[in-house]
Every structure is written in C-alpha cells, then in structure tokens.
Amino acid sequence: MRIAMIGTGYVGLVSGACFADFGHQVTCVDQDADKVAALRRGEIPIFEPGLDALVAANVKAARLSFTTDLAGPVADAEAVFIAVGTPSRRGDGHADLSYVYAAAREIGVALKDFTVVITKSTVPVGTGDEIERVIREVNPSADVAVASNPEFLREGAAIRDFKFPDRIVIGTSDDRARKVLGDIYRPLSLNQAPLMFTARRTAELIKYAANAFLATKITFINEIADLSEKVGADIQEVARGIGLDNRIGTKFLHAGPGYGGSCFPKDTLALMKTARDANAPIELIETTVRVNSARKQKMAQKIIAALDGNVKGKTIAVLGLTFKPNTDDMRDAPALEIVPTLQAEGARVRAFDPEGMSEAKHMLKDVNFASGPYDCVQGADAVVIITEWDQFRALDFDRIKDALKAPVVIDLRNVYRPEEMRAKGFTYVSVGRA
Ligand SMILES: NC(=O)c1ccc[n+]([C@@H]2O[C@H](COP(=O)([O-])OP(=O)(O)OC[C@H]3O[C@@H](n4cnc5c(N)ncnc54)[C@H](O)[C@@H]3O)[C@@H](O)[C@H]2O)c1
Fold first, then answer.
1. Ligand 1 pocket, 102 CB below 6 A?
2. For residue 335, what are the CA distances in angstroms to 257, 360, 382?
3. Is residue 90 pLDDT above 90, yes or no?
4. Over the chain, what is the mean pLDDT?
5. Among 404, 318, 315, which residue's Cα sits nearest to residue 353?
6. In terms of C-beta density within 10 A (0-12 exposed, 13-18 middle, 19 or more buried), how is residue 152 classed?
7. How far apart are CA 179 and CA 216, in angstroms?
8. Any catalytic annotation for residue 263?
9. Candidate of 30, 154, 169 to mutate for ligand 1, largest count of ligand atoms within 8 Å of Cβ
10. Predicted local distance difference test score (pLDDT) of residue 127
C-alpha cells in the first residue's frame, strides 16, 4: 500500500513508521520545514522510546520518507491519513479543526485516482462529513471515500500500542474503503487485534467516549484519595481493592496531581461542548473537567501546607515536569500550573526532568533547571515529585537528606512508602494516605 501521512507529530510519526515497518510505502508530510529537515537528517524531533531505531530502519529500507510537499505523495497514495493537531480552540474549548480542514482542502486539490482519506486526528462527531464536503467542494470529480480511524496509542508506549492495539476502530460505510483499510491493518489482524468496523460518526464518538471515561476514572480515584486522607484510609490499598474487581480493572486508578497531556484535557472539554451543542449535556464529564482543573491548585496548596503554609523565599526542588514519564510532551502538564502558583507565593523553583526541560524552558518562567535529581535538591527547603520517571523511583534518600536544607518530601505520585520515609527522618506528604 502507498500511504501519505499528513502531520508528522507524535501520532503521525509513530503511525507512519509503524505502517512502513509492516511493509507499506509511507511518505510523512509536515508543513513544518524544520521538522522535516531534522527528520531527513535522521534526527527525531520528539522523545518516544524506540522511535529513532524504527524510523532509521525503515528509512534505510526505503519504505519511509519525509517531505513538506503534500501534493505529490497524496496524488500517488491509495490511502491518505490526516494526523494533524486538534487543540482546544482559544476561548470556548471546542476542538480547533482549522488544521484538519486546511489539510482536507489541500488533499482534495491533489487527489488523482480512487483514494481513501482517513482521519486519525481526534475530531468531534460529524467532522468526517465536513471533510468530505470540503474535498468535494475543491474537487467535485474526486473519487474519494472519507473514513475515520481514531488512534488510541499512548505517548511513552506508542510503538507497542500501535503494533499491539486492544482494538482498531474503522468508521466507514464504503466497501472500497473497508478493503483498503483492511489491507493496511492486515499485518495486525495476524496478531489477532480486533478490527471493528462502524459507521463514521460512531467511530468519531468512540474516541472521545474512551478518553472521557479514562479521564473520569482518574478523577474518581483522585476524589477518593482526598477522602482517604481525611478518614485515615490508604488510597493505594483502596485502588487495589477495587481494581482487582474485573468489572473495574486496576489501570487508571493511580491517585495523583490530576490528568494532563495533549489529549485528556482538550478531549474532555471538546466532548462537553459537542454534548451541549447536541442538547445532551454530559454532567459527569462536566464535573470531571471542573474537578480536574481545580486539582492542580489543590496540589500547589498541598505543597505550600507541607512547608508550614509559607513558601516565601524558600527553594523548592521539583522532580519531573512532563505530564507523565517517558515523553517530552509538556502540553497541559500539571507542573505548568503547580510551578507558577508556588512562584506566585514567593518560592524559588529549581527543576529537573529527564526529557522535558527543553520544552519546559519555553513554558515556565524563572525556573532554575538542574542537571540531575541530586543537583536539583542541593540546598532546597523541600523536594516535590510531580512525575514518576523511573530514575526517581529509587533515589538515594541519605544523599537527598544531606543535600536538603530541611528533610521535606512531597510525593504527588505515591512513589514511596510513608512509613519508610518517616523512618528515614523525612516529613513526607503524599496523595490519599494519612
Ligand atoms: N499525542 C497523542 O498521544 C495522541 C494519541 C491519540 C490521538 N491523538 C490525536 O492525534 C492528533 C495529532 O496529535 P499529535 O500529538 O501527533 O499532534 P502534534 O501537534 O504533535 O503534530 C501535528 C503535526 O501536524 C502538522 N500539521 C498541521 N497542519 C498541517 C498540514 N496542513 N499539513 C501538514 N502538516 C500539518 C504540524 O506541523 C505538526 O507537526 C490530534 O488530533 C490528537 O488529539 C494524539
């Protein structure tokens, strides 16, 4: 299959490289000339474990290439995937579809023979209808089928998720599109990944419903964590105790500073808007959005309280800035709200993150960036763990205690055990544990 992937970000680059690895011929297109030039030099613009080797191998095998030119690869392709960004629209929280429609317009003009145009970007219900309308408007004779194929990969485990998905959802009622997408994903069907065909609008809604459910699950356990703190229960055990029930499941039950990242915040908000527009408001999601956005402030207040209610002039060492480990993605990371709140209260912040610092430097002001966790805590009044990178899971606390001005640890990811930390002489504050 000849595939054009429009948009070479986290999703487009991983999907393009994985499709090439299945043996398809893939051209990744991006309008960002610097990104394309870097990829052509063999540099990967994002941090995603295993991606550099996968890209290099498929470029070497001449199955994967990069360009800023959309028209050529689209004219040649049997399948064109749209994987451009769909951020929150400033002001109202609806998904900003301007990148999607701009891409659709360019694709429409370039189409030649029968082509399936597939939306991989996360887009509100009905967007496929509009993409089809745009394409037919710019190219009335185009022989095209527009399908939806939402992506469920997680940053940090993206290649594994793409190659061993729980399911592949394909929204189309066009038989030719079914055949093309069936062929593209055939290598995965051999691994028995369930291929699920639905109507286009159903596929679009599946993606939002999945993300909103997961975001709600996180928010649920966070609220139970707050209650645990008040009543003397241990949230780790509560989560395990409910998670072992198969109907509930253990995943996404880790209490912490609230969900962030490039998907859950914008997708919950967009679903909320879609539901209101359709006159079917989803109060559960509205509450999830509200509770989660208040949570980051709550975490900042937790840190301040651990420092006797006053952080003025104090130095706080922050370990972990990205919204989760194994990514350099800083979009909507809880740190982006927690750190400025501490600074507004007069704290000096020193921070270390294994992969997120170059991005964080553009998004946070007046932060002192350290070269490692021990450099970060030197002379600080407290240390806060915001992201549970592996390298923060086995810290040498004797060394940290010597380096800190005061032995105060605020662990927003419950990486350590309260009794052990107290035995080492720390004032230890975590989430959902008395
Ligand atoms: N990041 C994730 O973990 C994830 C997971 C599942 C789904 N998604 C969805 O996938 C979509 C893409 O997300 P992402 O994180 O990869 O975004 P991203 O911002 O990392 O990448 C988008 C890329 O598209 C390019 N682009 C925009 N308009 C273009 C055009 N007209 N022609 C060519 N290139 C263009 C941009 O330059 C950018 O490189 C979003 O809708 C997102 O919600 C993301």
1. yes
2. 9, 9, 16
3. no
4. 97
5. 318
6. middle
7. 36
8. yes
9. 30
10. 98
Give the model confidence (pLDDT) of 273-307 as tens digits.
Answer: 999 999 999 999 999 999 999 999 999 999 999 99
The whole-angstrom separation of Cα 44 and Cα 17 is 12
Distance from C-alpha of 215 to C-alpha of 209, rounded to nearest angstrom = 10
Q: Assess whether the C-beta atom of 148 lies below 6 angstroms from ligand 1.
A: no
d(CA 199, CA 103): 23
Alpha helices in 61-190 (DSSP H): 71-76, 98-110, 127-138, 158-163, 175-184, 186-189
Strand, helix or coil for residue 131: helix
Complete DSSP assignment for 292-360 = HHHHHHHHHHHHHHHTTT--TT-EEEEE--SSSTT----TT-THHHHHHHHHHTT-EEEEE-TTTHHHH
pTM: 0.96
Identify the residue whose C-alpha is closest to ligand 1 atom 11: 121
The separation between the first and the last C-alpha atoms of the chain, rounded to the nearest angstrom, is 57
The owner of tokens 């990486």 is 415
- What are the tens digits of pLDDT across the range 94-121? 999 999 999 999 999 999 999 999 999 9
What are the pLDDT digits (tens) for 360-385?
Answer: 999 999 999 999 999 999 999 999 99
Task: Enumerate residues 6+ apart whose C-beta is below 8 A from 301.
Answer: none
Nearest Cα residue to 147 out of 106, 200, 109, 197: 200
Ligand 1 neighbourhood includes 356 CB (under 6 angstroms) = no
Q: Which two tokens stand for residue 156?
A: 């940090």
Q: What are phi and psi of 264, to 5 degrees?
A: -55, -50
Neighbours of 129 (CB within 10 A): 13
The predicted pLDDT at position 405 comes to 97
For residue 401, report the distance from its CA to the centre of ligand 1, in Å.
Answer: 43
Q: Do residues 331 and 259 touch, judged by C-beta distance below 8 A?
A: no
Q: Provide the residue type at 413 as one letter.
A: R
pLDDT at 413 over 90: yes
Does residue 19 carry a pLDDT above 90? yes
Sheet holding 427-429, edge to edge: 368-369, 348-352, 315-319, 382-385, 408-411, 427-429
